[in-house]
Amino acid sequence: MQDSNQLPVGRRTYTADWWASGWTSITPFHLGSQSYYLIYNKTNGTVHMDRVSEDGRATSTVWSWTWSAGWTHFVPFTMSGQQYIIAYNSSSGEVHFDRVRPNAQGVDILWMGRWGTGFTHFVPFYVGDHPHLIAYNSDTGLVHFDRITDRLNGVDVASSLTWASGFDQFVPYVFNGENRLVAYNSATGLVHFDRILPALNGVDVLGSGTWARGWRLTGYDDVNGEPHLIAYNAGTGLVHQDRLGHSGMQILQVGYWKTGQSHVVGLNVRRASGAPRGFVLGYSTTAGGATITMLDDDTEHLACDATDCRIRDLPLLHQTDPALPADVAAQGPLGCYDASIAMAAAGALANRSPSASPLTATRTRDFDALVSSWPATSSNADLLAFQYRTAKARDPYYFHELLQDFSPIERRVPAACDPRAYGSCKSADSRYGDAYRIFVGPGDFVSDDLFVRGVRQKVMQIIAFDWTRNTTVDGRLVLELANAGHKVAVSGFRRATTSHPVLVNDPGANRQRRIHVGVLEASSRLVLPNGAASWPYVEFSDDPAHAKLLLMHYDGVRLN
User: Fold this and answer.
1) Which of 241, 263, 294 is the last residue of a domain?
2) Coil, strand, or helix at residue 358?
3) What strands lie across the sheet with 263-269, from one edge to the other?
4) The whole model's pTM is what?
5) Can you point out the beta strands (E) in 107-154?
6) Are residues 399 and 481 in the same domain?
């Protein structure tokens, strides 16, 4: 069985190709409502402090200097509202306590000293409002629990212990007011979920297991303050977005990012108003270039009331609209897919960033002209006729072409697929967004949550299902494929708990409807086609027969 409940991880990604190679440390910090990071090259000592815009779209260097080479670790912490950074050299043991100047214009050195050499990881956490550290040596397993002194002249060692060696990824977080820690060994896959003991004399292991090897981990808090984990594999680009809990985590999304990134750094980007948003900064020390991926949901594209959230400017198209021009009116009876494509493409274009424009002399440019004047000048029938004409010419307009018409596709599956040829690509992404079509069937898992998350993350989605025959035979429900399908465009979700939470625009019924998406499992009372043990299905809330309609595929497109 595979988990088909997948979306591209992150709501949007911004590319910073101008980053030079060679940076070895990336350390985020805050000054008031502004978010920054320090980047440092330990080979030549170059150091920058950069400010991150509150929407994550831009970074700017506000200060640069040259420090001595060789610093291996930078640990940010705050005390009494002031931002500080500890700088440590693992080869010499040299350590500085630095205070960050206003507006990130460098640092003032408050204390210099020498600690033991060889520490490979420092994990900051707070007891009350006071900063503490875990210092760990992955070669020997030596670990110190330290309290930063009130005078900022070093640390008081609360305890010194020996753990297993080899842990090389640590993510601290707070759960139910308690300090927690994810500890992971990327060589073996061993992972622990720990609670830091209040006496600062070790941890309680609340959960443990063995993951795949090779993950790089980072953490962030979402807009609700809930802790999350990002696990990234540089070799494959595979990435998991997880919600951290009491003794483990829940996988929220699985997808792919650019391969080869040596750093993945969680950023909680502050805003002048509203809660901080979660981002991840990815960077390759050898190749240069950076990406900043927004992880939190945004609501700019949603219109919400007490009951529902709906995607703004997503048209409801009627596949047999009587206003269709004569040359395409015959497309209507079988036009549910084309109508759904037009709805989703229009929603993606209407809700994109204002700075993004399709290239000239492209079909997306032509369709966007209709979308931008809808509904004042262009009509539902105009949007539908555009799509029907491309289908009638046997060259249907589709999501991968839409993406290509903004900028060249950076990653595609299969690698040799043509984004302008319908059906050639399974998935594609670029700096402007992503698109996919995922076929499902026996043994796959798909749920309501997939489509609700997609709406939250500005993905315009299509659900395709079979008009499955539901027959009762000898007390058993027997499902048979009709080999005739229907498509609908996802248009929103119900905010309250409900059995049918996904809202769809149905081009056949010409109205918004509610559906439930789940998985059927064969039993003595349920027979699935071809002897399948399980199959994803769709059910409409307004269907008095409660027919189970087997899911065939789902499509999605998102523009940043």
Assistant:
1) 294
2) coil
3) 12-16, 290-294, 277-283, 263-269
4) 0.65
5) 107-114, 121-127, 130-136, 142-148
6) yes
